[in-house]
Design goal:
Layout (H helix, E strand, L loop, with lengths): L1 H19 L15 E3 L6 H18 L2 E7 L7 H11 L6 E7 L4 E6 L8 H17 L3 H15 L12 H38 L6 H4 L4 H33 L5 H25 L6 H32 L2 H21 L1 H14 L11 H24 L6 H59 L5 H21 L4 H56 L6 H19 L5 H37 L5 H8 L3 E3 L15 E3 L14 E6 L1
Parallel strand pairs: 1-2, 2-3
Antiparallel strand pairs: 3-4, 4-7, 5-6
Helix pairs in contact: 2-5, 4-5, 6-8, 8-9, 8-10, 9-10, 11-13, 11-14, 12-14, 13-14, 14-15, 14-16, 15-16, 16-17, 16-18, 17-18
C-alpha cells in the first residue's frame, strides 16, 4: 500500500511539473511580414532597433536583404528544412538571406544564396561558425543577427582601402617627369627622323630615276618628295623646250624640227600621266602602303623618262640652232619681230580700256597688267638685241655664251610679250561668250536646285547636310550671276559651273542612296516577315507542348523574340543592323524548334516506356501539353516532373527557391 501511495504521489508531482514548466510552441513555416520578426519575444525595443539598423545597412552597402526570424520551435521540421520552406512561402530570391532561430529548442539555420554570398561558401560558413553560433550559444540573440548582417556586408568590402591614404605629390612628380621624358623623346625622335629623311632624299636623288628596281630600295617618304620635285623640274623643262621648239619651227620649218617636236610631245604626254597619278596620291581617298609606293614609282619613272627623252634631242637641236653662226640673221629677224609686237601695244591698250569700261576689275584680273608687262618684255628684248649686235660687230673670245644668251633672251621676251597681247584679245571674246551662255547655265543649275529641294523634303538622307549646303551655294551662285553677271560674266560663269558640278555630284549620290535604301527596305521587310513567322510558329508549338519542352528551347525562343524586337526598334536608326537582328531571330527560332522537337519526342518515349503502350493517349497528350504533370516522366524529359500523382498546371509552378544550391547551414547551439 505504501509503495502504491508513493507511486501515486510521484505521478502527481510529475504531472504538476509538466503543466507548470515552460513549453516551446512549434510554429510552422510562414510568410515573413518584415525583415526582423520576433515571434519568440526575445528582443527588447532597443535590440530590435539595432538589428533593424544592421539589416538596413547591409542592404544599403550591397543590396543584399537579410531576413531574421525568432520562433520558439521548428518541430517537427529540422532547422534548415524550416528555413527553406519559409524562403519559398516568403518569395525570397537570389539576393535574400535568412537567419532563422528556434530559441526554445536551441537550433538555427543560416542560408545565403550564392549571389548574395559573393560566390564563397567558405566565408558564409566562417560567419555562421565564428560569429553567429558563439552569440547564440550565449543567448545574445540580437548579437547573432547583427553578426550575420555585418558578416554579409563584409563579403563585398574592398580590400584596397588604404590606397586613398597614398600621397598624390610623389605620383604627380613622377607623372611630370615621365611626361617631360616623353616630350624630350618625341622632339629627339622628330629631329632624328628629319635628318634621316634628308639623308634618304639625298640618296634617292643619286638613284637612276628611270629604273623601277632601283627605286624599290628608296623609302616611301623619300620617294614621295622625289616625285614632287621631279615633276616640277620636268614640267619646267617641257615648257622651256616647247618655247624653243616654236621658235625653231618658225626659223627652220617643221621638217627639220620634227625629231625635237616628237620628243617634246612625248614628254608632255608622259608628264601629263605623271601629274594624273600625282593627283590620285593627293586626293582624299587613302591608298595602302603598297599602292602608294607603286603610284610614286610610276610618277618618278614617267617624269624621268620624259626628261631623258628631251635630253636626247638637246645636242642635235643645239647644233641645228647654232646661234653663233646665224646670229646676224637672227638678230635682224628679232628686230623685225620687235617692231611688229610694238605696233600691237596701242590697239591692245585701247581694247583693255574698253573692257574696263564694260566689266568689273575682277573679270579682267588675269589680263589687267598684260599691256604694261608686254612693254617691259619689249624693252628687255630691245636691250638684248642691241647687246647681241655689239657682240657680233666686235667678236671677243669667250663671249659666245653671252651672245647666245642675248639672242635667246630676246626670243623669249618677244614671245611672252606677243602672248600677253594675244591674251587681251582672247579675254574679250571669252567674256562675251560667257555673257551669251550665262542664262543657259543659270537655267541648268536652277533645275539642280529644285531637284535638291525635292530630295531634302523627302528626308532620310545620309548626306542631307552636305546636299543642303551645296543647294545653298548654288542659290548663292545664281543670285551672284543675276546681279553681277553683266560686270563679271567670267567670274559668275565660273562660280556657277563649280556650284553646279558639286550639286550634280551630290544629286547623283542621293539617287544611288535612294535606290540602295529601297533595296534595303525590301530586304528588311522580307527578313522581318520570315522572323515573325518563325517566332510565332515556334511560340505556338512550345505553348501547346509546354509540359515537355525544356529550358534550352525556351531560351533560344526568348532570345529570338529579343532579336525580333531589336529588329523592329532599329529599322529607322540602322536598317542594316535591323536586318541582321531579324535574320538572327530566324536562326534562333529554327534552333528553338529543333530543340523543342527533341524534347517532345523524348517525353513521348518516356511515357510509352513507363506504360508499355497501355493507357489513354489523351493522358499522354495532356502531359505533353502541360495540362497535367506527373512524376511518371521524371528523367524522361529535359525539365522532368515533380510531385506525386497528377497535378494541374493551370496556375503555374512553385514560387521562390526550394533551397537547393544555398550556402550556409544550421544545427544546434
Amino acid at each position: 500500500m505504501r509503495l502504491a501511495r508513493l507511486f501515486s504521489l510521484l505521478a502527481a508531482i510529475l504531472t504538476v511539473a509538466t503543466l507548470v514548466a515552460p513549453t516551446a510552441t512549434a510554429e510552422p513555416p510562414f510568410r515573413l511580414p518584415d525583415y526582423v520578426t520576433d515571434n519568440a519575444g526575445v528582443l527588447n525595443d532597443k535590440q530590435l532597433s539595432d538589428v533593424q539598423k544592421a539589416v538596413d545597412r547591409l542592404y544599403s552597402d550591397r543590396h543584399v536583404r537579410l531576413w531574421v526570424v525568432f520562433v520558439d520551435s521548428f518541430a517537427p521540421k529540422g532547422a534548415v528544412s524550416w528555413a527553406q520552406d519559409t524562403r519559398v512561402v516568403s518569395d525570397l530570391g537570389d539576393q535574400d538571406a535568412i537567419l532563422a532561430v528556434a530559441t526554445g529548442e536551441r537550433s538555427y539555420a543560416f542560408l545565403v544564396p550564392p549571389a548574395a554570398a559573393g560566390g564563397s561558401s567558405t566565408k558564409v560558413d566562417d560567419i555562421r561558425r565564428d560569429k553567429i553560433e558563439p552569440a547564440l550559444r550565449g543567448n545574445d540573440w540580437a548579437g547573432a543577427a547583427i553578426a550575420a548582417a555585418n558578416g554579409l556586408a563584409a563579403l563585398g568590402a574592398s580590400s584596397g582601402g588604404t590606397a586613398a591614404s597614398i600621397s598624390w605629390v610623389p605620383v604627380l612628380i613622377i607623372a611630370a617627369l615621365i611626361l617631360l621624358a616623353i616630350v624630350l623623346l618625341i622632339l629627339w625622335s622628330r629631329h632624328r627622323k628629319r635628318k634621316r629623311h634628308e639623308a634618304e632624299v639625298a640618296a634617292a636623288k643619286r638613284v637612276d630615276p628611270t629604273d623601277p628596281n632601283a627605286l624599290a630600295s628608296v623609302p616611301v617618304d623619300a620617294l614621295d618628295e622625289l616625285s614632287r620635285s621631279i615633276v616640277v623640274d620636268v614640267d619646267n623643262a617641257v615648257r622651256t623646250s616647247n618655247n624653243e621648239l616654236e621658235l625653231a619651227a618658225e626659223e627652220f620649218g617643221p621638217q627639220q624640227t620634227e625629231p625635237f617636236a616628237k620628243a617634246v610631245e612625248n614628254a608632255r604626254i608622259t608628264l601629263k600621266q605623271a601629274f594624273n597619278v600625282r593627283q590620285q596620291l593627293d586626293d582624299a581617298v587613302p591608298e595602302t602602303p603598297a599602292q602608294r609606293r607603286d603610284l610614286l614609282t610610276r610618277v618618278v619613272v614617267a617624269a624621268a623618262r620624259a626628261n631623258r627623252e628631251l635630253e636626247t634631242q638637246t645636242q642635235s637641236f643645239q647644233q641645228l640652232r647654232d646661234l653663233v653662226i646665224n646670229a646676224p640673221d637672227r638678230l635682224d629677224a628679232l628686230t623685225q619681230q620687235l617692231v611688229d609686237v610694238t605696233a600691237r601695244i596701242e590697239p591692245s591698250q585701247q581694247k583693255l580700256t574698253q573692257l574696263h569700261s564694260e566689266f568689273a576689275d575682277s573679270a579682267l584680273a588675269s589680263v589687267a597688267r598684260n599691256v604694261n608687262a608686254a612693254k617691259e618684255r619689249l624693252a628687255f628684248a630691245d636691250e638684248s638685241i642691241t647687246r647681241g649686235r655689239e657682240l657680233v660687230a666686235k667678236p671677243v673670245a669667250g663671249k659666245q655664251g653671252e651672245l647666245i644668251d642675248s639672242v635667246r633672251g630676246a626670243e623669249s621676251a618677244l614671245q611672252q610679250a606677243s602672248s600677253m597681247l594675244a591674251a587681251v584679245d582672247s579675254a574679250a571674246s571669252d567674256i562675251r561668250k560667257a555673257v551669251s551662255t550665262l542664262p543657259a547655265a543659270i537655267t541648268d543649275i536652277q533645275n539642280g536646285i529644285n531637284q535638291a529641294a525635292t530630295q531634302l523634303a523627302q528626308g532620310s538622307l545620309a548626306n542631307a547636310a552636305e546636299l543642303s549646303a551645296a543647294r545653298d551655294a548654288a542659290v548663292k551662285a545664281v543670285t551672284a550671276a543675276q546681279s553681277a553677271g553683266a560686270t563679271d560674266p567670267l567670274g559668275a560663269f565660273t562660280q556657277l559651273t563649280e556650284a553646279d558640278a558639286h550639286l550634280d555630284r551630290l544629286l547623283a549620290a542621293v539617287a544611288e542612296e535612294r535606290e540602295a535604301a529601297e533595296r534595303l527596305s525590301r530586304s528588311y521587310d522580307q527578313a522581318l516577315f520570315a522572323a515573325q513567322s518563325r517566332v510565332r510558329s515556334v511560340s505556338d508549338y512550345v505553348d501547346t507542348r509546354r509540359g515537355s519542352v525544356g529550358p534550352e528551347a525556351r531560351t533560344r525562343l526568348n532570345e529570338a523574340v529579343r532579336q525580333l524586337e531589336a529588329a523592329q526598334s532599329k529599322k529607322k536608326s540602322n536598317i542594316t543592323e535591323a536586318i541582321a537582328h531579324a535574320n538572327g531571330a530566324s536562326l534562333l527560332a529554327a534552333q528553338a524548334q529543333q530543340l523543342a522537337n527533341e524534347d517532345v519526342q523524348s517525353a513521348q518515349r518516356a511515357y510509352m516506356n513507363h506504360y508499355g503502350g497501355v493507357g489513354r493517349s489523351s493522358d499522354m497528350g495532356a502531359v505533353i501539353g502541360g495540362i497535367i504533370l506527373g512524376n511518371i516522366l521524371s528523367g524522361g524529359m529535359r525539365g522532368g516532373m515533380r510531385g506525386g500523382g497528377w497535378t494541374s498546371t493551370t496556375f503555374g509552378g512553385s514560387q521562390g527557391s526550394s533551397g537547393g544550391g544555398m550556402f550556409g547551414g544550421g544545427g544546434r547551439f
